[in-house]
Specification:
By secondary structure, the chain is of the alpha+beta class. The chain is built from eight helices and ten strands. Helix 1 packs antiparallel against helix 5 and helix 4 runs antiparallel to helix 5. About 10% of the residues have low confidence.
Length: 281
């Protein structure tokens, strides 16, 4: 894979993680088969532009950045990015002036040169525009190997209220507790030591179900808005969690009476966590 293709695959994997959908589920919701998505997400094949757009839609992510990465990767794969600009036409080695009537001087070479220059300008401008859509850190960063994983973008207080996937905190977090609710929904407490933050996620839910998480500071919430959410992992944004603090999540189903909820908590302590059984308060 080219470096641009590697960055695209990393972005697509992040989007797929956010959807919580399996390859079979992606195939059901798009025009692309399960085997096609396997090739796209493993970097074996550059996906079609529409597949990138479809994945952004399912992940509820603006498509600009992913499409910019796709444009650059497709340009490198096709070789358009490496093509040199056409050399300007020079004068003939031994010009032989031929007198022509004034009405027969169309300036064909000059017009052709102008067209070639315009095409080159559009191509360069397109690639430059795509590059400008990338975050500054990606434009300036050295090329990474295909297996390199980006580091976290926040830690502790700077992660407060941030999306764990956008901040690269969702790669290999600790699962502090998993709980099955009375309605059959599942919820988990998640903690990232490298980010110093935690969050909660739920799945197997129904439209209108709600989840909140806190570690003694702000309470962060998430809600199942529609059928797409109900078939995916939905998670809260992060809250700062220090070693020894208690991370607490509470689930409230859509049909619950006021104040009725199921809660579970876990204490973070170095490499271990102590979990308290779920309660209904």
């Amino acid at each position: 894979m080219t470096s641009a293709h590697t960055r695209l695959v990393t972005a697509l994997r992040e989007l797929r993680t956010r959807t919580g959908l399996s390859l079979a589920a992606l195939a059901e919701r798009t025009a692309y088969s399960k085997s096609s998505w396997e090739r796209y997400l493993n970097g074996k094949t550059l996906p079609p532009r529409q597949a990138v757009r479809d994945l952004c839609r399912l992940a509820r992510e603006p498509e600009g950045r992913a499409l910019a990465l796709w444009e650059i990767a497709e340009s490198e794969r096709s070789g358009r990015a490496a093509q040199p600009a056409p050399a300007p036409a020079g004068p003939d080695p031994q010009p032989q002036p031929q007198p022509q009537p004034p009405t027969r001087q169309p300036g064909i070479r000059r017009r052709l040169l102008a067209v070639l220059v315009a095409v080159c300008a559009v191509t360069v401008a397109g690639v430059a525009s795509a590059l400008l859509l990338l975050p500054d850190r990606e434009r300036a960063a050295p090329r990474a190997s295909a297996g390199a994983a980006p580091g976290p973008r926040c830690h502790g207080a700077t992660c407060e209220g941030q999306d764990p996937m956008h901040m690269f905190c969702g790669g290999g977090p600790d699962t502090l507790s998993t709980h099955r609710t009375a309605t059959g929904a599942r919820l988990e407490l998640r903690y990232s030591e490298k980010c110093g933050a935690g969050w909660a996620r739920m799945w197997g839910t129904g439209v209108g179900d709600r989840l909140e998480v806190t570690a003694g500071g702000p309470t962060r919430r998430a809600e199942i808005a529609d059928a797409v959410d109900a078939e995916s992992y939905v998670y809260t944004v992060m809250t700062e969690v220090r070693p020894g603090a208690v991370l607490r999540a509470c689930f409230r189903p859509a049909a619950a009476a006021d104040g009725e909820r199921e809660c579970v908590e876990a204490r973070v302590g170095g490499a271990t966590a102590t979990t308290r059984p779920p309660s209904r308060r």
